[in-house]
UniProtKB/TrEMBL annotation:
Organism this protein belongs to: Nocardioides oceani
Chain coiled-coil ranges: none
Protein name, UniProt field: VanW family protein
Transmembrane intervals: 17-40
InterPro entries: Glycopeptide_resist_protein (IPR052913), Vancomycin_resist_VanW (IPR007391), YoaR-like_PG-bd (IPR022029)
Length: 573
């Protein structure tokens, strides 16, 4: 006979049954999960739309194609930007706006996944999602450039500059510009809408250099800089620089939100070099016409120094006060031979003579006469010095700026370098004549040229014939030479003036022509033959009378006798 089961045995049997049931449920759920995964595959959850385009239930590739086709029209539609009552059209492609179709499908759930949430989404209603929009920042910035020129205004930094030794300031001004970050977000959100329109977001922009920065720069540097000259002392030679001179090498440049003093080192070196003489050589004083009046040009000491000694302390020097605006510069100094005081003693104060001649048009005359005048102009003769046109002008070569023109040789016209320079010689001779200077050497043309004053003219030839005169007065003489070039319809003009202190009033008489000699006829067959219609030679006498200024009595007289040879008739074969 069997024994009845105890309570623990019954409980053990019940636990096995529950375990079996749970295990069966797990197996059932797992099988269902696998079946759901297999049926869903990689398709987009059913009922899903992206930017209103239905792509649910499609494979990712099919969903991408559907989305691209569905958004094509909207993706190409211009975006309207509005601001301050104006509007601008923005081409989305040019602005770097684009739809990332693959990313949009992936965000919508396209692709295989064991995630139960994705499986649940697939078998339930899908969502209406936004497309993934990308923005190329560089393309957007380029597309916005013309819009930004029309909208808002740039901030303006304050500035401080120098003009002719004065301090000039520019007030800072706040600006407005497009908030590109905010605009990017709004474009991405609005891009695919039916009527894409965005109001441009503008933000205030403060200048980097504000009023406080300007005020600090003016008070601490600019105003002190222009307050007084600075003095550089080279040995025993002080050189004073005025604010209108040295402020040209100064600047206040923006740096990290401040205006920082700067000096143009090359310009400073040139400024100091000009003040003390080029290449360390002394420069003699002289006299020059300034504004039509004679003015002493001061001498400059010759100074050899290290420019770095000035450069390193100059910005500090211009902000000092009083006697502190003086800098001792280690230097070697050479004094000029002809000082400023010497130049003043010349007493070149007034015009003592002037003479003008005219010449017919020829390009070679314009070149040669103009070049000779350029070299002669500004010559200063000290008392007792002798002027030589050949020594002053130099040989008439192409390298010296001269060209070929007609000269007189053996009584006929031939071509040679420097033709026409005798026009300058004649004008210069007459200016000397009426200034009362001593005639040392002059030679009239061999035959008479009717545009020159008869008996008062001179020719020159390099190495053979010169025009020389001596300043036999107790005062200096400044020679001013000017040329107005000829034109095809007008004559050229040459004027030479002498500036000094008047010693003589000059008068002159010219005799009748006499002792005429007839021309000959020459027949030439050379390549350089130029035909000419001859005329007679003659003799003439000119007298120069010297009177003290304002007096009638003739102190002395000087005779000039000239014999002109005939100008021969030339026949060319």
């Amino acid at each position: 006979m069997s024994e009845p089961q105890t309570a623990p045995s019954r409980e053990k049997a019940g636990g096995r049954a529950v375990l079996l049931v749970l295990l069966g449920l797990v197996v059932l759920v797992g099988v269902g999960w696998v079946v759901a995964y297999a049926l869903a595959g990689d398709k987009v959850p059913r009922g899903t739309t992206v930017a209103g385009v239905p792509i649910g239930g499609r494979t990712p590739d099919a969903a991408v194609r559907t989305l691209r086709e569905g958004l094509a029209d909207r993706a190409d539609r211009p975006v309207t930007l509005t601001a301050e009552g104006g509007s601008f059209e923005l081409d989305p492609a040019a602005a770097g706006l684009a739809v990332d179709h693959e990313a949009s499908v992936a965000e919508a759930g396209g692709g295989r996944s064991w995630d139960p949430r994705r499986l649940w989404a697939y078998y339930t209603d899908g969502d209406d999602l936004d497309a993934v929009v990308t923005v190329d920042d560089s393309a957007l910035a380029e597309a916005l450039a013309p819009v930004e020129r029309e909208v808002g205004r740039p901030a303006r930094d304050g500035a401080v500059r120098f003009e002719a030794g004065r301090v000039v300031t520019t007030d800072p001004r706040a600006g407005q510009e497009v908030d590109v970050d905010a605009l990017r977000d709004e474009l991405a959100a609005t891009y695919l809408s039916e009527d894409p329109s965005v109001e441009l977001p503008l933000v205030d922009v403060e200048p980097e250099i504000d009023e406080a920065d300007v005020r600090t720069a003016v008070q601490e540097f600019a105003n002190p800089a222009v307050s007084a000259p600075v003095t550089l002392v080279f040995g025993d030679a002080p050189v004073q620089l005025r604010p209108r001179e040295f402020t040209e090498v100064l600047a206040l440049a923006p740096e990290d939100g401040e205006l920082v003093p700067e000096v143009d080192e090359q310009a400073l070196e040139k400024l100091v070099g000009d003040a003390v003489g080029d290449d360390g050589a002394p420069v003699d004083a002289t006299v020059a016409l300034v504004g039509g009046e004679p003015e002493v040009v001061p001498a400059e000491p010759g100074v050899t120094y290290d420019p770095g000694d000035v450069r390193e302390t100059f910005l500090d020097l211009v902000t000092r006060e009083g006697d502190e605006r003086r800098l001792e510069v280690e230097a070697r100094v050479a004094e000029p031979e002809f000082t400023t005081a010497d130049a003043r003693k010349l007493r070149i104060t007034e015009q003592v003579s002037t003479f003008t001649t005219y010449y017919p048009h020829a390009d070679y005359r314009n070149i040669n006469i103009g070049r000779a005048a350029e070299i002669v102009d500004g010559t200063v003769l000290k008392p007792g010095e002798t002027f030589s046109l050949n020594d002053t002008v130099g040989e008439r070569t192409a390298e010296n700026g001269f060209t070929e023109g007609f000269v007189i040789n053996d009584g006929i016209l031939v071509e040679d370098l420097g033709g026409g320079v005798s026009q300058m010689a004649t004008t210069l001779f007459n200016a000397m004549f009426f200034a009362g200077l001593e005639d040392v050497e002059h030679k009239p043309h061999s035959f008479y040229i009717d545009r020159y004053p008869v008996g008062r003219e001179a020719t020159v030839a390099w190495g053979a014939v010169d025009l020389r005169f001596r300043n036999d007065t107790p005062y200096g003489v400044l020679i001013d030479a000017e040329v107005t070039p000829s034109t095809p319809g007008g004559q050229g003009v040459v004027t030479v003036s002498m500036w000094s202190t008047k010693v003589w009033d000059i008068e002159t008489t010219t005799s009748e022509r006499y002792a005429f000699t007839p021309p000959q006829t020459r027949t030439l067959s050379t390549d350089d033959c130029y035909p000419n219609t001859g005329y007679s030679g003659f003799q003439v006498d000119v007298v120069r009378y010297f009177k003290e200024p304002g007096q009638d009595e003739v102190v002395r007289r000087e005779n000039f006798h000239t014999t002109y040879t005939p100008s021969d008739t030339v026949v060319c074969e």
